[in-house]
Amino acid sequence: MAANFWTSSHQKQLLDQEEVDVVHPLDKDKGITLEDFKLIKMHMANYILKLAQHVKVRQRVVATAVAYMRRVYTRKSMNEYDPRLVAPTCLYLASKAEESTVQARLLVFVLKKLYSDEKYRYDRYEIKDILEMEMKILEALNYYLVVFHPYRALSQLLQDAGLNDISMTQLTWGLVNDTYKTDLVLIHAPHLIALACIYVASVLREKDTTAWFEELRIDMNAVKNISMEILDFYENHRMITDERIIAALSKLNLKP
Amino acid sequence: MGDGNATNNRGLSSNNKPEWLQQYDLIGKIGEGTYGLVFLARIKSPTANRGKSIAIKKFKQSKDGDGVSPTAIREIMLLREISHENVVKLVNVHINHTDMSLYLAFDYAEHDLYEIIRHHRDKVNHVISQYTVKSLLWQLLNGLNYLHSNWIIHRDLKPSNILVMGEGDEQGVVKIGDFGLARIYQAPLKPLSDNGVVVTIWYRAPELLLGAKHYTSAVDMWAVGCIFAELLTLKPLFQGVEVKGNPNPFQLDQLDKIFKVLGHPTPEKWPTLANLPHWQQDLQHIQGHKYENTGLYNVVHLSPKTPAYDLLSRMLEYDPRKRLTASQALEHEYFRNDPLPGRNALVCQTGEKVNYPTRPVDTSTDFEGTTSLQPPQTVSSGNAVSGTMSGAHGGTMRSVPRQMAVGGMQRMQPQGMPAYNITSQAGMGGGMNPNGIPMQRGVPAQAHQQQLRRKDPGMGTNIYPPQQKSRRL
């Protein structure tokens, strides 16, 4: 259903980590490792965010676009679905789905302006490529377009916990944003991701939320596992360099 | 839909028909609108749904070079998530990558409230039976209650968007159609009024006419009230003349029509009235007219004491916050009194029924919207124009697309249609298919009609692939 996560296509499409961590055979043939795979997806999530800031759409559009991109790569190879085209097209489609349509022309203008001198060559794509890819992505998503995000649950939960001061709100909101740099959106329900972000933030800010979490009677193990993933992400993130991303992308040997 | 590959049609067959299209027999065109065409087709073997009728809505690539139309996106997005007996069922989506067109396949509904009302008004000269009105209304509210409880506002309810199933195991079941304007309203990123004025003017709620920016599911309930009245009287309740122009012109005439029947709204009864832009700006204009309050009961010929009148007047409450909700309406006394509403709205238990005409199908048009060279074989000229009643099932495949099957298409004006009889159609056909593109030729009318009406018992079977396994919580 459109507004009830429990009966939604999103809920039905949640996957296990092991299912998400499958490198498509075509990409494997190119030497793409699981690490490369994750790195490229993270890089593309950053790329979507950067584009979004230039075409001025809200965070929810970014989140939906990243979820689309990650869903595409649970089914399609990067070899056939060039991430450099998939990423902006996901933003394009998400902007329509979230009722804040961005013109394809503007998107192409921005990506040419931003990236014309970079070696990843994002600027090779034209409007026509985006429009063609839009249809391929619709197909790859099996026409399921509604995505739920942790943001709404987050503000409700913060309020409920009495933690809705500016500092905690900003910190947790930022944490939620960063979860889109991982595959968490494919694996966990949005309210659990929101809870994990609150958990991490309350540890960082030394707020005692134990009693509040106990009262919620939710699967605390799941929340702690997600929290660990979030912390792992920050831990690993420091070691990610441009060189590693370029190396991963270059394995794809994408056609000019 | 399937795994994506099934709908992939880059491999064209020898007769140039995309693979996905070969699972259907195209019967013809049944509607046309600004963003595309609607076709009637039947599912071919070897599925369990063989012979089942399907309405296929084809979206053209938008002209402004901006890909899949937001209307199509909205419709796919919502219909992929929802499932209810009284909501039209999206059975498949197809993409033709060659010409970048998108096709939505729906369960076919033979009737709609526009045609049912028109049939009674123009052909039967008799009101719709109480049982049928009540059953149609109940099912409409039932579907709407489902939508609203899922935070979906339809925003374009009108008789032609309320479909009714023809013969088969879902006969007389109401299906709310056309979600091209529907929106999830839980957390809009922009005010709901941003993407233009919605709701056909006759069914438009007063708060919208007065310029409300943040409207609610109550706008759908106003439309249901208007439709209820129209089912009772066979005439649109508030038939205002639309002011054309951009953006969002003030519709004084429509308000005037409403005030004539319901009297002026007052800030006492509707406290937020004073905040509505047009009420403030046009205060003099709006209040300049004085009305002899004719009274709603006079217009709909109901005694103010009847449950039907009570229900109607609560749906036409000015203040959207006081207006009855769909779930409240379903609990209304009207539905607990005889005759009780039923699942088959068209045939009550005593077996009394009206034979409504079937949709006219233009069998000379193919999926490209191209007209064939020869006149269609399915049309017999004798029936071509008459909107027959009892003979409706005998072969009334009129050659004129009169109406959409899935809503959202502009109604064709029969008078202005060159193809209204077989002679002129043949003439037109010759000129309209310069490429002589082959089309799916229909079988003779009689056989056609029978096949259309025979519904496979297994037709409800979901043709989507099994969902991926769900997990956690």
From TrEMBL, chain A:
Superkingdom to which the source organism belongs: Eukaryota
Keyword Cell division (UniProt): yes
SMART domains the UniProt entry points to: CYCLIN (SM00385)
Cyclin-like domain sequence ranges: 46-139, 152-232
GO molecular function term, any single one: cyclin-dependent protein serine/threonine kinase regulator activity
Sorted UniProt keywords: Cell cycle, Cell division, Cyclin
Coiled coil: none
GO biological process, one term: cell division
Self-association and partners: Interacts with the CDC2 protein kinase to form a serine/threonine kinase holoenzyme complex also known as maturation promoting factor (MPF). The cyclin subunit imparts substrate specificity to the complex.
Protein family membership: Belongs to the cyclin family. Cyclin C subfamily.
Name this protein carries in UniProt: B-like cyclin
Organism for this UniProt entry: Juglans regia
From TrEMBL, chain B:
One GO CC term, this protein: mediator complex
Domain Protein kinase: 24-335
Catalytic reaction equation(s): L-threonyl-[protein] + ATP = O-phospho-L-threonyl-[protein] + ADP + H(+); L-seryl-[protein] + ATP = O-phospho-L-seryl-[protein] + ADP + H(+); [DNA-directed RNA polymerase] + ATP = phospho-[DNA-directed RNA polymerase] + ADP + H(+)
Region (Disordered): 365-397, 435-473
Residues annotated to bind ATP: K58
Biased composition (Polar residues): 365-389, 464-473
Enzyme class, spelled out: transferase
Enzyme Commission number(s) of this protein: 2.7.11.22, 2.7.11.23
PROSITE patterns: PROTEIN_KINASE_ATP (PS00107), PROTEIN_KINASE_DOM (PS50011), PROTEIN_KINASE_ST (PS00108)
Keywords: ATP-binding, Kinase, Nucleotide-binding, Phosphoprotein, Serine/threonine-protein kinase, Transferase
Domain of life the protein comes from: Eukaryota
GO molecular function annotation: ATP binding; cyclin-dependent protein serine/threonine kinase activity; protein serine/threonine kinase activity; RNA polymerase II CTD heptapeptide repeat kinase activity
Family indicated by similarity: Belongs to the protein kinase superfamily. CMGC Ser/Thr protein kinase family. CDC2/CDKX subfamily.
Record-given protein name: Cyclin-dependent kinase E-1
Organism: Juglans regia (English walnut)
Gene name per UniProt: LOC108983389
